[in-house]
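Lab notes, practical 5.
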Amino acid sequence: MAADSRPSAPFKVRPARRGDASPIVALLAEVKAKADTATVTWILSHPEMEVLVAADLLDKVVGFVTLSHRPLLKTGGRAATLDELLVTESWRKKGVGQELLKRAVERAKVLGVKRLEIQSFDSPSPEQVRFFARCGFDQANVGVFRLRG
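Output from the prediction step:
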């Protein structure tokens, strides 16, 4: 993490609750992602998913991160993927994303994760590459194949 990781605006990070499903769907809609409350609620209750939210002082969700974890033969233990990291536009560059990422990494360590990756469905922007590099992540040269259709 960067040397100064203090937030520049007051917010808190906490585990997501069922009542956070609609605000999470609204955040996903900001980036044109298809999501629905039923799916988010399912993810919030799934035993191999961790969802953390950042909330302002009135407990309004302003960002979230999802961490999926599972046993993996190649690592001889657990592997985890940060599937989503999203902060609403007005809260970006205020330390929210960095704090969410830091907390997800801490949770992965508690779970004994041996490999932690960030999932991106699009090519990362240069700004995203710089952000993740500042947070200790390097781009991996891996092949990903998806089933057509």
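Observations recorded by the TA: Residues 1-5 have pLDDT under 50 and may be disordered. The domain at 12-134 is CATH 3.40.630.30 (Aminopeptidase).
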